[in-house]
Amino acid sequence: MRVEEVSAVSTNLSQDPALKRSNTTVAIACVAFVGSMVGMAYAAVPLYQLFCQVTGLGGTTQRVEQLSEVVLDRTINVTFDANVSSSLPWDFKAIDKKVSPKIGETVEIRYVATNTSDRPVKGEAIFNVTPFEAGAYFNKVQCFCFTETTLQPGESMEMPVVFFVDPAIVDNEDTKTINNITLSYTFFPRGDDQPVASLPVREVDGQPQL
Asked: Which residues constitute the domain of residue 7?
């Protein structure tokens, strides 16, 4: 086929109304898909919170208002872990790395977060406890998880956690031998600081093209 014929075929295809409609449909579908992914990312933290509360998975802890009235003469080691999403410009760490309270004793430990960027940034933390079986006996009186937090440029904030390990942990065959528990938090961006995935969209003859 000669060059002139190829050019003529390409021109006819670009002017074909059916092809234009097809391209438009594909472009709209792709944009809708990207938008749905962004929406799912925005809802990830609330959905995780609801999932853990309903199923009890992920080492879900208990939130309580009343302190334990019983303190056993047995200690348990609790280690604190800190993580931050790569899309959140924060430094986040545990000030108190490890404590060994008596079971039933109320303890306060602290984390600290610092905004390392030059703009205000919002973050929100999720958590888990390992081993998972211990989660039901890890009672938090005060906690910063699932709370949207805004840090100004360079600002640091201490975040306390007040907790106790329920003495009932020694009455369960599956948990009575647990001697070590890890409480882990991970911060993710929230609100306008959510990462947004996008695809470049251009127009050809007034029609959106990817």
From this structure: 1-42
